[in-house]
Write a structure and sequence with these properties.
Strand order of the largest sheet: 1-2
Number of helices: 4
Radius of gyration: 19 Å
Structural class: mainly alpha
Oligomer: single chain
Strand content: 5-15%
Helix content: 40-55%
Number of strands: 2
Length: 114
């Protein structure tokens, strides 16, 4: 739970249902951007750890890296690859990119690394 207590069976079930669809938030061709800040400068006096108010010291990449962040990056970059391929295929065929893809490409970048 939010204060470190074990999750109830109902909370575990709800979490499991959420995990099954979480990729949809990061893999929407037309409406999602992922913003990552992988290098975090700790404020003076900050403590590291895994409790409330502590900064998670786990590196984003490499051995022991944060799995969730890598998942977010992977699905968003997969969407970017699909959009790029769709643009190339449309150009090769001399056809316009589907309207929803045009809107997606015009709206914003898909992956930001700040």
């Amino acid at each position: 739970g939010p204060d470190g207590e074990d999750k109830t069976e109902a909370e575990k079930a709800m979490f499991g249902r959420g995990l099954k669809v979480m990729g949809n938030f990061y893999a929407s061709v037309t409406g999602t951007s992922v913003i990552q800040q992988r290098n975090i400068d700790l404020p003076l006096g900050a403590t590291t750890g895994f409790g409330p108010g502590e900064y998670n010291p786990t590196p984003y990449e490499g051995d022991g890296g944060r799995g969730w962040c890598i998942f977010e990056q992977g699905v968003s970059m997969t969407v970017l690859a699909h959009l790029t391929a769709a643009e190339r295929q449309a150009e090769e065929r001399g056809k316009a990119l589907p309207r929803r893809f045009q809107r997606a490409q015009a709206s914003r970048a898909k992956v930001y690394d700040i």
